[in-house]
Amino acid sequence: MTRQTEKNAETLIQENLQAQGWDLTDFNTLTKGYTLPSGREADYAVLFDGKPEAIIEAKKPGKDLYAALAQAKDYASEVGVTLIFASDGKKILRQNLQARTLPEEIPRFPTLAELKEFFNPVATELYGTLRDYQKVAVSQALAAVQSGREKFYLQMATASGKTIVAAGIVAKLFSVGLLRKTLVIVDRDGLADQTVDKFTHHLGDNFKVRRLTGDREVRFADICVTTVQFLATNQKYRLYPSDFFDLIFLDECHRSYFGDWHPVVEHFRSGGAWVLGLTATPSDKETQNTDHYFGPPVFRYTYRQGVQEGYLADCEHVKYRTNVDIEGVHDMGFDFEPEQLGRAVDVPQRNHLIAEKYFELMGSEPVKTLVFAASIPHAKNLRYALIEKYNELHNLRPSDATAEEFIVAIHNEMPNAKDLLQEFQKIRAPDERLEILDRARNGKLTSPIPLVAVSIDMLSTGVDAPDIDVLLMARPTKSKVLYVQMKGRGTRKCKETDKESFKLIDFVDLARIEEAITNDTPGVEDALPEEVDIPAPKEEKPEREREKEREPEHREMAIADVPVWLVSSEVIAPQTLQDIKRQIESQIKPAQDKNTGRERFRQAVLAWSYLKEEEPVDPRYLSAMGFDLETLRDLYGEAEATVEDFIAVVRGEKRFLSPEERKRQTVIRWAKGGKKLTNEQLEFFLMLYDFKQKNPELTVQQLFKSQLLTYRGGLPKVKSLFGNLKSFLGLYEEAKEISPLDYEKEESDER
Predict the structure, then answer these.
(1) Secondary structure tally for the chain: helices H, strands E
(2) What are phi and psi of 399, to 5 degrees?
(3) Which CATH class is domain 313-541+557-576?
(4) Rounded to the nearest 10 degrees, what angle do helices 574-612 and 132-146 cross at?
(5) Residues 362 and 356 sit within 8 Å (Cβ to Cβ)
(6) How far apart are CA 356 and CA 338, in angstroms?
(7) Residue 518: pLDDT over 50
(8) Domains 6-110 and 313-541+557-576 share a fold
(9) 302 and 515 in contact (C-beta within 8 Å)?
(10) What is the second-level CATH architecture of the domain 6-110?
(11) Domain limits of the chain?
């Protein structure tokens, strides 16, 4: 028979405390045998800043725990403690002396974070530092949790404070007893360390924040941070019970958490964890549509709102259009194929033109600049074009390598990329930048300090460098998400450098892509750039000899060179956008009214769900709120939809097809029904249809340069399936004339 002793009870108490994440070796926080002023000894005392805040009394099973609690109360009176516990290792009693409550039995000991929150509510303190829109975001997240949403996301512009909002959500949910353990998942290694630092800054006084490693003890932190790759490798996520975490944050939730890595998320969601996504750029791709998975965002804050309210830096676009043709570059549906794109734009004269226009705009001394290139060779060659132009402006030998110290390429294949990135992210006042340039000219820099960083996608997201003055877009993209993320690197204000705005030098004329993501100027399309005459480019000078004593690293140039010139240029200042907006406000008001109406309908459905939980939404309730069937059909432009359809769309359970998707479905029915195409013929026809829809001016020659078509047999295969090329192309011409309404009417008449 096991002996029941007080020492055994103390052992069980320690195990219980350890299970809640307490570090039993941190005697500055938890001390055993605490000596009171009277000389008596309490079994355990919890200390904050050396002062006892709680007392725990241990008694062997069978002893009266209420008597032990009275003893703890006596001890507490000596040192002003207001929270006491008594336990035999299996049963735990707690009493709040300050609130004058009766003793209560609790299932477990509180975590250290819970005790800190009890004595010093961080939610209240942190909430007071939030901006107004950040408070709304926290409240919306809390309402979503309380209304039963299992997964939802916040859409917030880059630099609008997603991390402090996430910290506020953790603190708020913790303070109302809905949360104990949080997992933050990112998809890049550098973001993990950055996230740990930011959460520690905001919540580190009360919460233990750690990055998950192989160390078993780390998992008991209140807030764990990791990469999705770490959890997915060898299915390490299965080492954690599915209900181990209460809340899962997905940083940059528009990417990475779908496909092969999706089981990581679903493992914890199956255990009851809330999944909360954060992104500035929701994806509308069919394979990873953000709204399809999470439902519509519960909160949205755009870049233009941030500028208007004075929180984000305004942008001046300087747009150049060159004669470089990238029509032949393979379109993967969401962006250009990277290798082909790199070869297409890495033209020496284009690189020199970019360098010339950069220094023409910014002066002879470079400012803090981030350059986006298309490939690693392109980044290297563009870097040297900038260096050569700098040498020319400063009357240095063409081979002088001084500027290599501050015009630097940063990409994943460089062994010191992480160190260079950390240097680039340091805020440097104008005087310090000039000092760096002087030290470089005098040969006194011991290692490179990037003022101009030439990179690829590595710096497109998660890089926190508020003092960036210029973004130079030398990398064409069809991805709305990537473009807005690249622009987001410049949107932070910087009080150390008095930065209120930044300049975006765009060599790929993509500014209109941004509208679909940020809603900066609804309904506004850019005017065509004004044509300008630019002198023909100078002939390339022969290869120059490098200075032996300071020879730069090897430079890999593009094989082919072609003449490159500017076709047009344009400057779009912030005031221009405001003037255009004022001119068309009356035109866009009806669309805004419909957006407002749809948002009111969404709130009405959410309110019903919160109050009535699983009970179906009553159409009479919606009518009373002003949303009868005809009103909803008008708001959404869906003439055949039912009330149930609209409710399902609001809840994220389904979505309405876009006009393009409706047309494509009709074309498929026509091809299979009217044209009797086989599955193989249909596959080739849809490749043609999709290519032509995205690129109406696509030529036959460009079409058959597509790797997708080539891999499936190319022109010979097309001829074998359709008889000849003319029949194949003719199908598309017929399909263009098909109307979904007409085709549906024909099908109805046949029935």
Answers:
(1) 29, 21
(2) -90, 0
(3) alpha beta
(4) 30
(5) no
(6) 25
(7) no
(8) no
(9) no
(10) Alpha-Beta Complex (3.90)
(11) 6-110, 122-301, 313-541+557-576, 585-646, 659-750
Instruction: Name the token pair of 7.
Output: 């020492």
Cβ 454 vs Cβ 383: under 8 Å: yes
Give CA–CA dist 379/382, Å, rounded. 5
CA distance 473 to 372: 5
Give the position of tokens 């003055």.
Answer: 469
CB-CB contact of 39 with 22 (8 Å): no
Give residue 341's identity as a one-letter amino acid code: L
Find, among 589, 747, 722, 597, the residue nearest to 666 by Cα: 747
What CATH class is the domain 122-301? alpha beta
Q: Could you tell me the two tokens for 327? A: 């029509």
- Three-state SS for 616? coil
- From 184, 172, 49, select the one nearest 122 (Cα to Cα): 172
In angstroms, rounded to a whole number, what is the distance separating the alpha carbons of residues 240 and 179? Answer: 17
The band of 332, judged by pLDDT with boundaries at 50, 70 and 90, is low
Residue pair 88/65 in contact (Cβ under 8 Å)? The answer is yes
Q: Are 56 and 24 in contact (CB under 8 A)?
A: no
Q: Provide the CB-side half-sphere exposure for 334 (13 A, CA).
A: 12
Q: Do 226 and 183 meet the contact criterion of CB atoms below 8 Å apart?
A: yes
Dist. CA 512–CA 127, nearest whole Å: 37
Compute CA distances 588 → 83, 486, 573, 585, whole Å.
60, 28, 22, 5
The whole-angstrom separation of Cα 321 and Cα 32 is: 73
What letter would DSSP give residue 374?
A: S
DSSP 275-301: EEEEESS----TTS-HHHHH-S-SEEE
CA–CA dist 523, 588 (Å, integer) = 7
Angle, alpha carbons 30-35-38 (nearest 5°):
145
The model's pLDDT over 243-257, given as tens digits with 9 standing for 90+, comes to 999 999 999 888 767
Q: Distance between CA atoms of 518 and 508, rounded to whole angstroms?
A: 19
**CA-wise closest residue to 213 among 242, 187, 193, 243:** 193
Q: Could you tell me the two tokens for 679?
A: 């599955």
Kindly calculate the radius of gyration of the chain based on its CA atoms and give it in whole angstroms: 32
Kindly state the tokens that stand for 314: 């305004």
Report the sign of the C-alpha dihedral through residues 238, 244, 245, 246, in that order: positive
Distances in whole angstroms, Cα of residue 493 to Cα of each of 194, 314, 421, 426: 19, 9, 19, 14
3-state SS, one letter per residue, for 106-129: ECCCCCHHHHHHHHCCHHHHHHCC
Measured from the Cβ of residue 739, the count of other Cβ atoms closer than 10 Å reads 11
38 with 51: CB under 8 angstroms?
no
Q: What are the backbone dihedrals phi and psi of residue 599, each rounded to the nearest 5 degrees, phi first?
A: -70, -40
Work out the end-to-end distance of the chain between its first and last CA atoms, rounded to an integer number of angstroms. Answer: 84
CA distance 707 to 332: 10
Name the amino acid, one letter, at 461.
T
Phi, psi dihedral angles at 226 (to 5 degrees):
-160, 170
Q: How confident is the model at residue 540 (pLDDT cuts 50, 70, 90)?
A: very low
CB atoms within 10 A of CB 5: 11
Residue 513: pLDDT band by 50, 70, 90 thresholds? very low
Winning range, highest mean pLDDT, from 100-109, 379-388, 564-573, 719-728: 379-388
User: What pLDDT digit, counting tens, does each position of 546-559 carry?
Assistant: 333 333 333 333 33
Is the model more confident about 494 or about 594? 494
> Per DSSP, what are the bridge partners of residue 499?
494
Q: With contact defined as beta carbons under 8 Å apart, do 147 and 610 qualify?
A: yes
Sign of CA dihedral 406, 412, 415, 416: positive
Give me 98's structure tokens. Answer: 């300050």
Which is nearest to 69 in space by CA: 80, 53, 81, 57?
A: 57
